[in-house]
Amino acid sequence: MAELLEVAEVSIRFGGVRALDTVSLFVAAGEAVGLVGPNGAGKTTLFDCISGRLRPDAGALLFDGRRLDSVPAYRRARMGLARTFQRLEVFPELTVRDHLLVADRAHRGAGALWRDLLNMAAVRPEEAARVEEILVLLGLGELAETPVAALGLGRCRLVELGRALACQPRLLLADEPSSGLDGDEASAVAAALRSVQHRRHTAVLLVEHDLGMVSRVADRVVVLDAGKVIAEGPFDAVVGDPGVRRAYLGVTA
Amino acid sequence: MNTFLGYALPGIPYGCDFALMAVGLVITFRTTGVFNLAFGAQAFAAAFIFDLLVRSQGLPVWAAFVVAVLVVSPALGWSFDRLLFRHIPTASTTAKVVSAVGLLIAIPQTLPVLFGSTPRLDPPSLWLDPSRIVFHLFSTPVNGGELSTTVITVGVVLAVVVFLRRSPVGLEMRAVVESRRLAQLQGIDAARVSAGAWALSSAMAGLAGVLLLPLTAELVPSDPLQFTSLLVAGLTAAAVAGMRSITGALGAAVALGVLESLLRAVLPSGVLAQAVIPAFPFVVLVATLVGSPRLRQLERRADPLVGVDPPPAPPATSVRDRRLEAPMRWGFRLLVVAFVVSGLTWVPGYWVTSLSEGLALSVVFLSITLITGQSGQLSLCQATFAGIGAFGAGQLAAHLGLSVLVGAVVGGLIAAGAGAFLALLAMRISGLLLTLLTLAFALFADQFLFQYTWSGGGLSGVVVPRPVIGPIDFGSDRSFMMLALVVLMLCAGLVLLVQRGTTGRYLAAMRGSETGAASLGINLLRARATVFAMSAGLAGVGGAMFGSLYHSVSAPSFDYVYSLAFVVVVVSTGARRVEGAIQAGMAYALIALALTYAPSRLDGIEPVLFALGAMTYAAHPEGIVEYQKRKWLARVSRLLAAADARRGAPGARPGLVGTSEAAHAGHG
Lengths: 253, 668
Fold this sequence. Notes:
The structure holds two protein chains of two kinds. Chain A has ten helices and ten strands.
């Protein structure tokens, strides 16, 4: 499999803290990788570096063979990198449907002002169909016209996931998509992730504390602790590793 | 060396005046988390009361000082907290700035309503006689005013620093701003600490007002303490200090004062000096706002327990029965027809002028609908853009003989260019810093850009003729009013198209979360440049119509205070929707018209009304008037539904439409 994302010896520090210390990992096209580690390990920081919110101090990021260093965040999204956020970044006053529609148009760079001014910005049938497909996939159909401010945390996570999927990504960065969700909702998220991975061949990099979900979704697991990769491999092997158990699960082997 | 010091020395008391403002802004920000633009207004209030007590009531200076600075000012600050800021702890920095702008407008206008408005000449000074030379230093005379300002400022600032660093209360204040929740978990009564912080910073403001009093020739509410230049310098020093360091703010302010007086001495008098000296603080301010990484961190800092706070209340959803839509649409059409017919027939002449002003201002207000309502950016320079449009149209008519309507469009384009430039300049900043940059631009235009004959036309202003299209001359007020109505309709249509289209949705997304919007592939820089340019262009066209209505305009018509007032007016009626802007424009003009029938002491009451409305912005971002309207519509819809249910009609919840802002913008 060709490598879609390659993180090569990326480091970043905040003041005296080394948040990421020469982190290297890769995600192949269509592959699902779990990224686990204790709080403060640097998982979200790594996501921020990949998606362009933060600029690493050292190291290289390659997406589809292209250096990402000087590519701004919105361009990375258009290249096929979509993400969700651990701390919600939804648009409270937009409806669920508008979230998906905005994403569908934005990732294509469709949004010329002159079209608006000529009243040519109505929703096209093919756009409506793509949005509908995601609404159904995530079970958000009934809430399509509800402003997101009126939804609970769990539903907001689904909206963020749907919004990311509406960008038709080649790599989806999912940051703790199940935190704050009840069991049913978490299963729906896991099913959705598996489904897009299989049907659309979307690669997934999943940060998640719920190891059950990681085992169901991820083909491979990378463990991060204090800014360093401490283990990598198939789920069972990594979770069985005594070093990982010490760092993450707090269990002395 | 002695000559150098002789030049530098007068800058020190001058810088201390700036320091009072700068330190006040920093202290309020650090202890309450609010960037308090109303600081100057509070200073004005204290100075006003101090002056009143000494002059009218014959109180000794020390007693007046105690009442004004140690009793009234803290009480005022405490009441701000109690009545306003306590209720919006989780509101965004921008929303809090809007509330502060409301206060800034309301306070100076309330005082003359309460105490009468005769300007007071030659106000009393606090300590030493300002005109008496106390001693000579390096052969430079030092007068009592300079000495007392310097000594008191430095003393007070040091006392505050020691208080905040050493006393447990100071530590609690800093903790509450850092994380209200964590502080509460430590057993700190955050509400009481906040109230105390407000009282402290307001006492600072009061002290500043009383100290600065001898500098001012008169006290006029429209320009509290003539504090435009103070505000610029104070903002600059506060920004240089990263909004955090109090001693840094003092140092920066004094350095600024000294540098200015050195420049004054070194530069040959003439054009160069006239251009460089007023521009100097702006250059420092803009460079700091745009370039300082420390200021940018300010925006990123977040309460670690922010997730614990309940999310801000969502705006009232517009739930309405479908059966209400047709009557509302017809009601609106009837209103327009009635307006046109009345305007052409029975309405008295000076009402026509007021109504036309309302229409022209509505166009300017639409620019706020777009930039603040739709994209969530708070711009404090919309009156400046209006001025660019008006002066552009007038100058083009005078020099190139362009028709005013073409001139208005070109003027709008020039304003749009200025807007886009501002957005590009602000490439790496957002939120509060962007707002301050727009404020800096407005102040820059007041003091600099509009002061030339080629721009603002100097004291006599710029003539903006009435347009003539073929055989139709819009010289008569009634025909001009119809033209203004048509222009407003066109502009409103334009805004509606943008709101309904992709751009409007992108802007609404940006308003919700810039990070989220960028993660989808929305180019924030482009979106922001687009909205700034469109909004500035609209304001420019509105400004040109305003100028044409009154035949001529001059720089004071577009003072930065108007930019603030406009935001306050629109935000209180409803910034989200086109009809909000039109309601705002008409209300602004008509209330002013109604007040011409009221006693003159009430003149200032209009801005106060709107300012009170704007203070609710954080709680009701859709506007207090719009909020009431939606509540009322929802109630009628419920009554209709209940009636249906009683009659046993099929589908007990018929056709309720609940929509988001973006999708909804099309209606009405």
